[in-house]
Amino acid sequence: MEFQNEPFTEKLKTMKSIVFNCSFLFFLFLSSCGVYSFTGASISPEVKTISIQTFFNNAQLGPANMSNLFTEGLKDYFQQNTSLTIIDNEGHLQFDGYIDNYTLTPVGAGASGRSDQVDYAQLTRITIVVYATYTNVIDDTFNYEKRFSFFKDFDQEEVDLSSVEEEFVEEIFDQIIIDMFNESVANW
Fold first, then answer.
1. Which of 8, 41, 59, 130 is the most buried (most CB within 10 A)?
2. Integer CA distances (angstroms), 179 to 24, 105, 144, 161, 184, in order
3. pLDDT tens digits, one per residue of 63-119
4. Which span out of 10-19, 28-37, 39-48, 83-92 was modeled with the highest average pLDDT?
5. Are 99 and 59 in contact (CB under 8 A)?
6. CB contact at 8 A, 43 and 137
7. Taking a C-beta distance cutoff of 8 angstroms, is the pair 124, 105 a contact?
């Protein structure tokens, strides 16, 4: 008994070969276009190192560990999303700066509903401002000195700030770090 699907098997092998070759050529093309990352980073092949100085906390409010949270968060983000080596000083890319401000601002009024009680701020906004200096010693086109800020709103009636403040600060820092990354190496 002869195997009747012999031509089908040959066609399947040919199709697999074509798919493999096309995939190989696609990835070869991507790697030949300089350093590309699927995070959107476009970093020159000459850039190998990054130095991130401690971002000191100059804000009067906020958790005491904000300096450490932000600096380590920035380092972690670059380690996870680039192939750059972090060094202490004089990297090809350099970040420097400080946490400039931490504010709590009422953004939504709530009524107590009673004439003998004071109305209150139902929604409160935490805003953090970070001042950053970015230097690319290979190509100064994207160097900057800039303030980055982001905020988080919360309902004071439902949330005890002291129990979630660090979580909110980390959320805000995550967005600021993404903005700094995009401004520096993703060129957005």
1. 130
2. 33, 23, 13, 25, 9
3. 999 999 999 999 999 999 999 999 999 999 999 999 999 999 998 766 656 666 666
4. 83-92
5. yes
6. no
7. yes
Cβ neighbours of residue 128 under 8 Å, at least 6 residues apart? 59, 62, 66, 99, 101, 102, 149, 150, 151, 169, 172, 173, 176
* Collapsed DSSP state (helix, strand, coil) of residue 35: strand
Q: How does pLDDT run across 126-145, given as a tens digit for each residue?
A: 999 999 999 999 998 889 99
Question: How many other C-beta atoms can be found within 10 angstroms of the C-beta atom of residue 137?
Answer: 14
**Cβ atoms 119, 131 nearer than 8 A:** no
The tokens of 132 are what? 């950053």
| pLDDT reported for residue 56 | 97
Beta-carbon contacts of residue 9 (< 8 Å; ≥ 6 apart): 3
What's the CA gap between 43 and 37, in Å, rounded?
9
Tokens of residue 15, six digits: 């199709």
Q: What tokens appear for 178 in the block?
A: 């993404």
- The DSSP letter of residue 186 is I
Q: Say if residue 175 is exposed, middle or buried (CB neighbours under 10 Å; 0-12, 13-18, 19+).
A: middle
Task: Give yes or no for residue 53 having a pLDDT over 80.
Answer: yes
